[in-house]
Amino acid sequence: xxxxxxxxxxxxxxxxxxxxxxxxxxxxxxxxxxxxxxxxxxxxxxxxxxxxxxxxxxxxxxxxxxxxxxxxxxxxxxxxxxxxxxxxxxxxxxxxxxxxxxxxxxxxxxxxxxxxxxxxxxxxxxxxxxxxxxxxxxxxxxxxxxxxxxxxxxxxxxxxxxxxxxxxxxxxxxxxxxxxxxxxxxxxxxxxxxxxxxxxxxxxxxxxxxxxxxxxxxxxxxxxxxxxxxxxxxxxxxxxxxxxxxxxxxxxxxxxxxxxxxxxxxxxx
Length: 269
Description:
The protein has 269 residues and is of the alpha/beta class. It has helices spanning 3-18, 58-61, 67-87, 105-117, 138-150, 188-200, 214-223, 249-252, and strands spanning 22-31, 38-48, 54-56, 93-96, 125-130, 154-160, 173-176, 205-208, 227-229, 242-244. Strands 1-2-4-5-6-7-8-9 form an 8-stranded mixed barrel, surrounded by 5 helices. Helix 4 runs parallel beside helix 5. The radius of gyration is 18 Å and the shape is globular.
């Protein structure tokens, strides 16, 4: 790992947040049998350097020392998505929820507070969570997502079958990771079919990610997927299509004392 590159990416992301230079682009999730039908659009995080260079959220989230920054960025991105929905009444968005956002009860309180305040938009928001959550977060994460689903949010399990700690929650849709359709092996088709069949046991809506060619689109259709996501049908812009001034990190990181928050004990069902 190049530490100089890591420090530059992390520092650039922090400054972008402090000065309101964050936003998102969108990538559609399309019906496999009729790509003109859009299930929802996923928000892809972006931050912009002072010279106009656009970075993706993945450019800093890969570094282990960025967990606190990743938490703040994730919450701001979700806030941006909810703002977008308030201004676009016909849209449905999906937003990734980082493990850091559900790492402990304090983090869950902060996240649930944001979700609860925007519950009027809940039916038009899909919260995407990965399987690969640390074991210590599973219980609080499952409780939080169960509560979010109870007030109308839909839950998507992302990167299905790539994690080793399956989340014990009810999901509305499952996203099969791109690696299962992008393998250049003779047994790709049966593996993908098996993954889709397994995913369909958890949810009736199954999305295959990473669709970049028509052969891959046909493979997803043959495997039994209901929807697909990828550059073939929806190539997101690198520059963000929506952004606003973000709150300072120092306000985001203000600690919550036990019992000091009205939702401290009420976010669980």
